Model the fold of this input.
Amino acid sequence: MSAVYVWVETFNGQPNPASWEALGAGRTLAAKAGVPLTALIFGENAAQVAATAAQYGADSAIICEDATLSGFRLEPYAALLTKMVEANQPVAVLAVGTSRARELLAASAADTNGGLLTEVTEFTAQDDGTITAMRPVYAGKIISQAVIKAGKTQFLALRGRAFAPNAIDEAAAADITTAEPALSEADISTKIESFQAETGSVSLTDAAIIVSGGRGMANNPKDAPADAGDAAVWKAQDGFEHTIKPLAEVLGAAVGASRAAVDAGYIPYAHQVGQTGKTVSPDLYIACGISGAIQHQAGMRTSKVIVAINKDADAPIFKLAQYGLVGDLYAIVPSLTAELKKRLNKS
Done:
């Protein structure tokens, strides 16, 4: 076994900061196995990203800056990763489980007949190379323990914010090896025409703080304009814009929502947290008007601190929350926002 590989995800030549969490997790595994921690960087600006990866703990890096890898396409990425795994037989391949990482690791695991575990939140390694990994299953109601035997490369997609990055060493440097691409452009059936990026908001999956709204955002739909149509929907949409977002802005937080709020048309799907939305693990999760159905809990129950604001004192969310406020969110949240502005010296 040659190394522990960590795939560093990039976009437009810039690393996804979540990848440093995978290097933090990989350091433990590499130290136990007595092998180097190797960062894999594909695409433009790979050499510069490799230098940053060294500062976050990578002993070495394998890069490929071929034009076929300038944007993420599964075919060339998976072919190159599979080629590296087959040639070098690393102990494991790790990545933080973004949609791209899960797709890439699953494809390469299938190509190499290796095992794949997703949503890993904790693992330990034994001297004989055995890895014991913990991961939530059944919407987070059960923690599953999986034992991975040594001998074949295993693939681990880690849950975001479950592992801490290594301490930065600005003087560190890594041995960099350049690899050749596995496919030519003629061998790749997919093409990238353009990207349309969402701007002006904090990413849910990366956010340290999330403020979410639910079905309760439509409570007491009053003061709706005459042409508002469905007053309940108008009230909820207006509430997200003028109640939830101001609190999020004060805290530097992302805005989330329950499936009920998304299905009702209060806010776009991109904000949905839960079993059929995004899985998040922020330091602070504030749930406003969210009852706390098990499907929503599946996406946020690993949050370090949960604050619930709901009119229903019997709402399931209170059983999960460390702090709870029973009352009208339209009275509580603006007061909370105003007080935080004072304490944080924000106008």
About this structure: Residues 231-251 form the longest helix (21 residues). Residues 4-187 form a domain with the Rossmann fold fold (CATH 3.40.50.620). DSSP finds nine helices and 17 strands in the chain.
